[in-house]
Amino acid sequence: MAWPCSSCSLTSIPTFSLHTSPHLLNPSSPSLPLYNRNNIAPLKSHHLIKTNRVHSWGKPLQASSSKNIGAETTTAQNEEEEEEISKGTLIWRAIKLPIYSVALVPLTVGSAAAYLQTGIFMARRYVLLLTSSVLIITWLNLSNDVYDFDTGADKNKKESVVNMVGSRTGTLVAAYTLLALGFMGLMLACAEAGNIRSILLMTCAIICGYIYQCPPFRLSYQGLGEPLCFSAFGPFATTAFYLLQSSRSELYHLPLTGTVLSASLFVGFTTSLILFCSHFHQVDGDENVGKMSPLVRIGTKTGSQVVKAAIILLYSLLLALGLSNSLPITCIVLCSLTLPIGKLVVNYVENNHTDKSKIFMAKYYCVRLHALFGAALSLGLVAAKTFPKAYTPNPLFA
């Protein structure tokens, strides 16, 4: 008996002996299956092989069916993975917890520079400043989501707080409430320190953040986000935190030194690198809404070369400032230990700059570099205080 195939010709059907089962002729007898389970597979396999020798379409038809099933299975798996990612990581991405290192590093480096100068660390004020900084960074993140929602840049961004909460107004009100609370904390710390220059510098840093993303300026849409980020978190914020570790007493008065300014350059540099790498997976979306980020202008391939040049410049500047005695040798040694993570950033961006699903992680590798470099810089400044004769900061302004 041949395998059922309505379109097969008789010449293509393999020949088998026909034996009529007596059970089929006797209705009263219980019917037995023609084939048991073990016999079906060999007969099917044998017949398909025989058929494919005559009909060339037999095998492609089977392959096409298998491919369709495989494609459906793959699609279902991708949907399940996407659903799993949306449930497991959307909140984490919306909170952007690793990005809050940009609040911790300037404060820690500035406080370490103040400790090098005076040997005093004011822990309570440090906590106050850290809390205020976190509130202000949260304002930056929330207001950025609101204004990108307005322009359509975050239309398909699932981790956007506005898209998750469903309220633009509520998100904006929360953002500016946090800004007000954070600024009040800074004012309180400024009053304790008795240093008016510090609050002026912090105000400049906040203004940089405002004109970066908020209307009517939105300078990030002109590709000016990186220089604004460098200024805000580097010279402005780091120097302000340094000055806020002083007191009204003349004994703890902090002059502006080349050491803290040099250290602030590295803080601003690594923070800007985070922002630069955050554009890689958003190039198409930014271009569609007219946001001319640096990577929209130069492309991801050139952007990967810029990242490589930036890492080389970072460590070259470290060596130059160490040789010029602008930074203590302890900073040079400890910061040099972060070279492997710097190399990791370069290699990862070079290998994945065209893969949107992978290049998303580039900014988080930059966050690691930023945090580790900042920690090494801070430890180097603190360690230099142990050897006061080996390094003495040179005041630039009293």
From TrEMBL:
Q: Which domain of life is it from?
A: Eukaryota
Sorted alphabetically, the keyword list is:
Membrane, Transferase, Transmembrane, Transmembrane helix
Instruction: List the source organism.
Output: Kingdonia uniflora
This one is known as Uncharacterized protein
**One GO CC annotation, please?**
membrane
Membrane topology, as annotated, equals: Multi-pass membrane protein
Q: Where is this region: Disordered?
A: 60-80
- Bias kind Polar residues: ranges: 62-77
